[in-house]
Amino acid sequence: MIRILIAEHLPLVRRGLLATLDAEPGLRVVAEVGHAEEVAAAARASAPDVAVVDLDLPGPPVVAELAGRVPSCRTLILSARPDPGQVRRALAGPALGFMSLRVAPERLADGIRQVAAGRPAIEAELAVAALHWERNPLTRRELDVLRIAAGGARSTEIADQLFLSVGTVRNHLSRIMCKTGARNRVDAVRIASDSGWL
After folding, report:
1. Can you list the positions of beta strands (E) in 8-134?
2. What is the mean pLDDT of residues 158-182?
3. Within 10 Å of residue 102's Cβ, how many Cβ atoms?
4. In which band, very low, low, confident or very high, does the pLDDT at 134 lie, cut at 50, 70 and 90?
5. Is the pLDDT of residue 39 over 90?
6. Residue 121, phi then psi, degrees to nearest 5
């Protein structure tokens, strides 16, 4: 019997996962939580084999903490809006699986079985997208500028927040647009978000 911890912040989704996984032969949900701060304690108390963790779980990141505190528990990440950058970042850490919330229930169950056996479980289309994903060409400072610009800030506001001159901010925005091939800053934000750089 594979013991499962579900970490999902939306109660309806969490209950759906519980009902789906408990109905699968050889799988049993032993704990469910809705916030990142509850994951480690629940895992220590219930000793799951696999934690199914929502990527958007509120609170601090849990996968590395879980691996450190309960090393016998392997992790499969679920994402409502997966992108290649998320997949690569997740699998560069201790997670063994990554799937979309849109995955078929039987595929999720199979993925949990693979992860419990110590094998990676990634949806085929996500794996292909991650393989063809381009590395982030933006510097850390350019990402800082773009994150603030994504909130609708003007160049002067970005300059104030980052303690830069307006000219320097404009130069950063110009380089960002060249590197991403964007037509304008809104397009640059979209491209960076879709690529998983932001």
Report:
1. 27-33, 50-54, 74-79, 97-100, 121-122
2. 91
3. 11
4. low
5. yes
6. -135, 105
Integer Cα distance of 77 and 101 in angstroms? 9
Number of H helices, E strands in the chain: 10, 6
Query: HEC string of 122-181?
Result: ECHHHHHHHHCCCCCCCCHHHHHHHHHHHCCCCHHHHHHHHCCCHHHHHHHHHHHHHHHC
- Please tell me the total number of residues recorded for the chain in this structure: 198
Q: What is the mean pLDDT of the chain?
A: 88
Give the CB-side neighbour count of residue 30, counting CA atoms within 13 A: 19
CA separation for the pair 6, 198 (Å, rounded): 27
Strands 74-79 and 97-100: parallel
d(CA 95, CA 53): 10
Question: pLDDT band at residue 115, thresholds of 50, 70 and 90?
Answer: very high
Q: Which residues contact 155 (CB under 8 A, 6 or more apart)?
A: 166, 169, 170, 173
Query: Cα 187–189–192 angle (5° rounding)?
Result: 105
Q: pLDDT for 63-114, tens place per residue?
A: 888 988 999 999 999 988 776 666 767 777 788 888 988 899 999 999 999 9
pTM (global) more than 0.90:
no
Separation of alpha carbons 62 and 68, rounded Å? 10
Going from the C-alpha of 182 to that of each of 139, 149, 151, 174, the distances in angstroms are 16, 14, 17, 10
